[in-house]
Amino acid sequence: MLEIKEEYLKKILPLDGPSINEVKRYLEKYNDEYIVIKCGGSVLVDQNLFDIFIKDISILNKLGFIPIIVHGGGKRINNKLNELGIKSNFIKGLRVTDKETIKVVEKVLIEFNSEIIEALKVQSCSSQSINSRKNNVITVIQKNAELGFVGSPIEINKTIIDKFVDDKKVPVIAPLGLDEKNQTYNINADTAAGFIAKKIAARRLIIMSDVEGVLDGNKNLVPEINSNSIKDLIDNEVVTGGMIPKINNCIDVASNGVKGVVIIDGRKNHSILFELLSKKGSGTLIRK
Known about the structure:
Blueprint: H1 6-12, H2 20-26, E1 34-39, H3 47-62, E2 66-71, H4 74-83, E3 90-91, E4 94-95, H5 99-122, E5 127-130, E6 138-142, E7 151-156, H6 158-166, E8 170-173, E9 176-178, E10 184-186, H7 189-199, E11 204-209, E12 224-226, H8 227-235, H9 243-254, E13 260-265, H10 271-277, E14 283-287
Helix pairs in contact: 4-5, 7-9
C-alpha cells in the first residue's frame, strides 16, 4: 500500500467518519487483502444510506483497500413482483422461484447492479459488474426442487475477480449463478457473499444489515463473540428467527479461513469506515 499523505486523507475522509489519526493507524491492517462487503436491507432502498455506502466504498478504493461488493435486492424484487401481480412464497426465508419469477429476479438484480456501478463512477471509483449475463463467477447446483431456481454455490471463478482487482476496479457481484446448462439461479445474498469470502480467502466478510449486530439477553450489543458463545445464545433463544441462518452462515465462514466476520448496522452513517478504520468498530465481530 502506498504511503498516504495527511492532506489527501483530509480531502477524502468524511467529517462525521473516523478521525484522520485513527485511519492512519489502520491503513496497513488490511494491506493487499480482500474485504467482502455484503450490502442489503435499508442501504439498498434508502437513498441517503445508499449514497453514504457508495462514498465509503470509493474511499476504501482510494485508500488502496480491496473491497468486493455482493449486493442483495429482496425489497426491490418484492416490489417488482407485486407490480406484475406475481405472488411470492417463502420456505425458511428463501423465495420459491419458478421460471417466471427467476426472469424478474435476474432483471431486477442486474438493473440494480448497474445502478451501483454508475453511482461509484460518479464518485470517481472504477468498478466492474459481475452477474449471470456478464462475467459470471458463481457456478451453482439447484438447492432443492421445492425452491425451484434457487442455487447453492459450488465453485467460484477467482481468476475473473483477480483480474478486475489488479485493474484497481471494485467488483460488484449480483447474487446470481449459472448451472452446468447455463441456467440462471437466484442465490441468497448472505450465502453468496460467505461462499465468495471463503473461496478467495478474504481477510474480512462484512454483512451490512438492519440490526445493530448480535444482542445479548439484555438487548445490549455484543462487540465480539466466538462460535461457541453464539451457539449458547441460539440454544437459549436469545438469537431467534431470521438471525439464526445469518449467524450460522457467519460461523461457517469464520470457521473456514476468513479471519473475521462482522455484522454491522447499515442504518448508521459510515458504519463500514468505523468498522475497518477505528478502534470501536460498528457491530459484532464473529470469530472461530
